[in-house]
Each structure stands twice: as structure tokens, then as C-alpha cells.
Amino acid sequence: MTRGALLVAGTTSDAGKSVVTAGICRWLARRGVKVAPFKAQNMSLNSYVTPDGAEIGRAQAMQAAACGLEPTADMNPILLKPGGDRRSQVVVLGEPIADVDALEYGAHRDRLREIALAALERLRAAYDVVICEGAGSPAEINLRAGDIANMGLARAAGLPVIVVGDIDRGGVFASLYGTLALLEPADQALVAGFVINKFRGAPELLAPGLAMLRGLTGRPVYGVLPWRDGLWLDAEDSLALAADPPAAGGGGNRGTLRVAVVRLPRISNFTDADALAAEPGVLVRFVTSPWEAEDADLLVLPGTRATVADLDWLRRTGLAEAVAARARAGRPVLGICGGYQMLARTIRDEVESRAGHVDGLGLLPATVEFRPAKTLGRPSGEGYGHPVAGYAIHHGVVTPTGGEPFPGGCRSGAVWGTSWHGLLENDGFRRAFLADVAAAAGRDFAPAPDTSFAALRERRLDALGDLVEHHLDTAALLRLLENGVDDGLPVLPPGGV
């Protein structure tokens, strides 16, 4: 019986920690191992609500799905949600407890470390294996004293560590070597080896570098994961938006529906666009200017951690007028959560921005009031004759004062608004909504009758499991889980800081 735990760290943010963790989870789950994911501290604006109403990082919910589990608060006990003025909301075991800046956060650090370690211990008691994901890079030496997500966690819990490097960025050997060399000796002792991610080249050209890295560090490369298109899902943070999500396929004679999602400065839960991008014939791109959105058949205002501040940005960039012009012309607009709040007539916010009364875009008959208690839930209902479900995460409560009913919100003409995330993952509803959008936009587009977003996510999770199974030294990973790190691994100069 495989037992144990390990930490997947990375040389940088977006190096591939989340997907490697998910891949290892899926590979182990397919072997019959009772496995769970864990991330002690996550800084992300993409979050999810567990069945019991706790808010956690969206990536940990995806990793739980890779394990065949419903997510729990223990899988991400500390979530930091950045807002304005360099402050973040601190969510602990699924509930917001404070808004702090980086210096104020230090006052909570010791208590949060104990909470994170206790959550990990509960998972280790309940599951055979726990695959932990680090945050950022373990070589952020200015933050090491207060670290609870990388080597601080590994040291406290005795976790072996593998470090993932993204070769597509360039400089992967320097990044892997430098990450190890900057760690203090006791931290280096827990680093068992490396994984190289997103490789596109000829393996024979890479092989000498792998051998040299092992000679320089005394540690193996557990494998090289090749670049794979089409694995974009449930991204951790907005760094992933450097590339748009791929469309699921060509539109054939159904035509193509073009969707523009506004990339707000504090965009949150942009994973709502994943289900649109999964639909054959739908092309999704993220935009930051009116001209980029001009030819879109559907413009989406997504969630945001700072509704009033991002609404001001929308006005300064000219996008607010572009949205209003679309609505006047009967061209489709969809607002989700914070985007829905922007579409309302008035906003009263004494909580998030403390701006008081603010005029919304006035495109939906609704008012917004921000309340101190955050709404967290898994609502359900019906839309276009189909059962629907989603999840709600917001301080701003929208009250429709007219218009037509729409799940989690309302509709007026070609403008729709909803407070529910995940609404578009409901297949029948999504197809009916897109057909309505296409009709309003005058497009010759018919949604595919059999697209299943849940099945697509399962295929992508299986693809991640296949990458681990076929390209990593899985026998070595099993030994690492069962036995931990070998004693006597060499310490690199400068031997810490």
C-alpha cells in the first residue's frame, strides 16, 4: 500500500505546479490509491465553493476532481484574495477573517501556520497519500522566514520536495540549479529532484543537460513533460491569460461565435470562460480595449475582486461606453458576479471600496449593496428550461427591480447578468444561451448538441495523468512517497543565505 506525502514546488509562478500536482493525483487515483491534494496557502482570485459552503482556490477543486473527490476546506486552508491598495482578503478554512496588507499579514502568520499544518495532518490521517502544491517559488529568500507554503511547510511536515521548471520560458537549468543553491542546507536536504515541464524540442538535445544537472546537484530529473495543447483549464492566476484558452474545435458550417472577455485589472474567476471555450465553434479571447472587443458577438464582463475600482478602469479605457453602445444596438453582453454588479443602475459600497454611492452602467434594472458578510453558496435553479447549478462568492448583493428572470440575476434585451459562477458549465443551459446570443448577434451558429463540459474536464485530467504515467519515473515517485528523501544529498554553494 502506497503511503506518504510530497510537495510539488516550482521555480516560478505558472511553472506548472498545479497541473503536475493534478496529474500525479489522477495517476495515483487510477492505481487505486486514496489520494488528496493540499495547498497550505494560495494567493488567487480564482476560487470555488465546497459543498459545505467553504471558499477555496479553484485549482485545489480541480485537483480534488483529479482524485475523484469533492473538495474540502482542508485542501486549501489559507486563501489570499488580492484587492485594491495592496491589500488581500484572508480566507481561513473557507471563511474570510480579515483584509490586510503584507506587513499586517505577519501578525497572523504563526497562527496560520498552525492551522495549515493541522489541516495537512487531518488529510494525512484520512488518505493514503497527500500531494501538496507549493506557492510561487521556494527560493523567494526574502520571504523564507515566514514561509508556510514551500520549504517552511516541507520542514515542518517532513515532506520530500520535487521542483518543477518551465523550459518553455528558457533558462530552465539555471532556474533549477539556482533554486536549489539559494536554499539553506536543511531545506536543500528535502529537495529530492526535478521535473522539467512544457518541453517542445528534441529529447536527444536535452539529454546532456539532464546528465549535467544531476552531476552538479546530485539529484535526478524525474522526467520531462512534453508540451501539450488543449490542457488549459482551471488556471491558478492571471499569468495564464498571457495566452488565450484554445477553442475546442472548428465551427464547420455552423459558423463561429466570437466571445470577448474583458480582462479587468482585478479579474477573478475568469475560469467561467472555460466552458465557453470548450464549445465547438466558439472562439474566446481576453481584451483590454474597445477596439479589441468591437467584432465580438458576445462581450463578457467577468468577476472582479474590486467592482468599483474596475468599473472606474472600464470608464477610463473607453470600454464602459463600448459596452453601453453594444447594449443600445441590441448586441449581447453578459455580466458575471462583479461584472453583473457593474451593469446595475446604482452601487452602494461601504465595504469593499468604501466609495459609498456609485453609478453603475445602468444597463440592467437592478441595484447593488455591498454587505460585510460574504455570500458563499452552491445555488441551483432553472434556465431556458434546463436545470442549472453554480456557486456564489460575493459581498455585493444585486436586487433586480425589473427585467426578465435569469438564473442568479436578470435580463433586459440583449444584456444578461448573473451572480453565479459556473453557470455556463451546465451543458443544456449553455447551448440554449449561446443559441439566444447567436440569434441576437445575427450569427449563423448552432451549438453542438453533445458537448459535455464535465466530460471534457475528465478527459483533460486523464491526459494529465497520462503525462505523469508515460513521462515521469513513477517507480521513483512511489519510492519517494514511501521512503522519503535519501540521506546525504549534497549541499550546493553558497549553501543558503
Automatic annotation (TrEMBL):
The active site is at C337, H421. Residues 258-428 form the CobB/CobQ-like glutamine amidotransferase domain. Residues 7-232 form the CobQ/CobB/MinD/ParA nucleotide binding domain. One of its GO terms (molecular function) is ABC-type vitamin B12 transporter activity. The keyword Nucleotidyltransferase does not apply. Keywords: Cobalamin biosynthesis, Glutamine amidotransferase. Pathway: Cofactor biosynthesis; adenosylcobalamin biosynthesis. Gene3D superfamilies: 3.40.50.880, P-loop containing nucleotide triphosphate hydrolases. The keyword Repressor does not apply. InterPro entries: Class_I_gatase-like, CobQ/CobB/MinD/ParA_Nub-bd_dom, CobQ_GATase1, CobQ_N, CobQ_synth, GATase_3, P-loop_NTPase. Catalyzes amidations at positions B, D, E, and G on adenosylcobyrinic A,C-diamide. NH(2) groups are provided by glutamine, and one molecule of ATP is hydrogenolyzed for each amidation. Belongs to the CobB/CobQ family. CobQ subfamily. HAMAP family: CobQ. This is Cobyric acid synthase. It comes from Thermopolyspora flexuosa.
